[in-house]
Write a structure and sequence with these properties.
The chain is of the alpha+beta class. It has two domains: 25-345, Endonuclease/exonuclease/phosphatase (Deoxyribonuclease I, Chain A); 361-446, Immunoglobulin-like. It has helices at 2-17, 44-55, 73-82, 173-180, 185-196, 235-242, 248-252; strands at 25-33, 59-63, 89-91, 97-101, 105-110, 118-125, 128-136, 203-208, 246-247, 287-292, 297-304, 309-311, 314-316, 325-326, 338-345, 363-365, 376-383, 387-394, 400-409, 412-419, 426-434, 438-446. It has a seven-stranded mixed sheet with strand order 3-4-2-1-15-11-14. Strands 5-6-7-8-10-9 form a six-stranded mixed sheet. Helix 5 runs parallel beside helix 6. The longest helix has 16 residues, at 2-17.
Length: 448
């Protein structure tokens, strides 16, 4: 009886003294303009499904959701993904935007005053609420066409002719900004900011804004993409920045020359040019994932889609050498590329009674094969979430003798080859670390 009570006391002290695992949550977001819900290309729904399966994001914000013929497109894509083993919740409040989420959606609504262009969704992330807003802002008075020598929808979308059949750029910045304010984009952004101003929950705002960023039209890029020497402090991204919002893509890639982040106009498989300015280079970054609150951090960012865009009505991959692309081998169904971001939410955790994060079930480390081995062996592991991965080999003294992996990887199953020709016979260990959510060590034997 005494030994049994002593054992209980030791276990109680262990549970009290050993710190519980506080696995901060990383969530993958994707902002995806689906170009008339995929109807602009053949087999568009299937192509959209295949891209989401490949990227496997936690939350997707769609724009250009039309619900043609009274059919609920968001429900259709959820069903398509379910057939592939991916379970998402549907969120649709109206307008032409919607959200799908691997986490429950507790509430959804159109943002008052946004003209039906922005919808809000409350996502339950392990008992904590975050607000995800998805927007498709006004495309008229597309002022970034003026410096390229084209009208932006008013009085038309035609070229501003210089009298010789060539574009005549507008380079007066005040004129460009005044034209931009004739759109309703600024009213829509202000409606969003007014609605979320007093919210205490973390907010993610993503979508197709039909507006460039002041972080991209700088002195450094004034000779690129037919900016024709102008530096433009675009009002709407500045308004978001001044209100405390962070642009995840520019946060991760701060150099606008090395990583311009072009999302428009994208090459779409099976279609011709998607550019609206055949005699100009209208490549721009107009799709975004912004965030605010909850000490959110950008862990990773990328473009989703092909490298190709259109410039002067021709396919071009210039200025993409430093970009990160996902799903670029799949057929692309849209005139926009999508934007991807992994955001870390430090204050959202889920811990069970044993002190281990439930996120562990998302990862696994296999036994190496063969084991024992003579000169080489293969280590396998699986990830259901994208994260930073390190895989190191240790000797019996606990020193790292080889690093096999030290990089950000996407959700998948991996097989890593370890060549031990330079090592002597003995016992070794391999240790897998995935973000702050998973650590496991296994032993293997090298026999010469």
């Amino acid at each position: 009886m005494r030994d049994k009570n002593l054992l209980k006391l030791i276990m109680a002290l262990y549970l009290f003294l050993v710190p519980k695992a506080q696995a901060q949550i990383d969530l993958d977001f994707m902002a995806f303009n689906i170009w008339q819900e995929g109807t602009s290309v053949s087999n568009g729904l299937t192509k959209i499904k295949n891209i989401i399966v490949e990227v496997n994001p936690d939350v997707v914000g769609f724009s250009e959701v039309r619900n043609y013929n009274g059919q609920d497109w968001t429900a259709k894509i959820v069903d398509e993904l379910s057939s592939e083993g991916l379970q998402y919740h549907r969120g649709y409040a109206g307008g032409d935007v919607s959200v799908i989420s691997k986490f429950p959606i507790q509430d959804f609504y159109l943002i008052p005053g946004s003209g039906g262009s922005i919808a809000g969704f409350h996502l339950d992330i392990n008992g904590e609420i975050i607000i995800v807003a998805c927007g498709h802002l006004d495309y008229m008075y597309y002022a970034c066409y003026l410096p390229r020598g084209y009208n932006g929808g008013s009085p038309n979308w035609n070229m501003i002719d210089d009298g010789t059949g060539n574009p005549d750029p507008v380079t007066d910045v005040s004129q460009i900004l005044s034209y931009n304010l004739l759109s309703t984009k600024d009213e829509q952004v202000n409606a969003f900011l007014n609605y979320t101003e007093n919210k205490t929950e973390p907010v993610v705002f993503m979508g197709d804004f039909n507006d460039p960023s002041h972080l991209d039209w700088t002195a450094n890029t004034s000779a690129m993409f037919d900016h024709n020497g102008v530096v433009v402090p675009w009002q709407n991204t500045m308004l978001l920045e001044d209100s405390g919002y962070t642009d995840s893509y520019r946060e991760f890639f701060p150099n606008e020359v090395d990583n311009p982040g072009i999302t428009w106009p994208s090459y779409a498989h099976g279609k011709g040019s998607t550019s609206w300015t055949p005699l100009a280079d209208d490549r721009d970054r107009i799709d975004y994932i912004f965030y605010k609150g909850g000490d959110i951090q950008t862990k990773y960012a990328a473009l989703v889609g092909p490298r190709e865009s259109y410039a002067n009505n021709e396919i071009s991959t210039t200025f993409t050498a430093n970009e990160h692309f996902i799903a670029d081998s799949l057929e692309w169904p849209s005139d926009h590329k999508a934007v991807f971001a992994t955001l870390t939410f430090p204050h959202i955790t889920k811990v069970n009674e044993f002190g281990h994060s439930d996120m562990i079930k998302n990862f696994s480390l296999g036994n190496n094969y063969p084991n024992p081995f003579n000169s080489s062996t293969t280590i396998s592991y699986s990830m259901k979430k994208s994260s930073h991965v390190s895989l190191n080999i240790y000797n019996v003294h606990g020193r790292i003798i080889d690093t096999l992996i030290n990089e950000y990887q996407f959700a998948d199953t991996y097989f890593v080859h370890f060549d031990a020709n330079n090592y002597t016979s003995g016992i070794y260990f391999y240790k897998l670390c995935i973000g702050n959510e998973f650590v496991e060590t296994k032993k293997f034997s090298l026999i010469r």
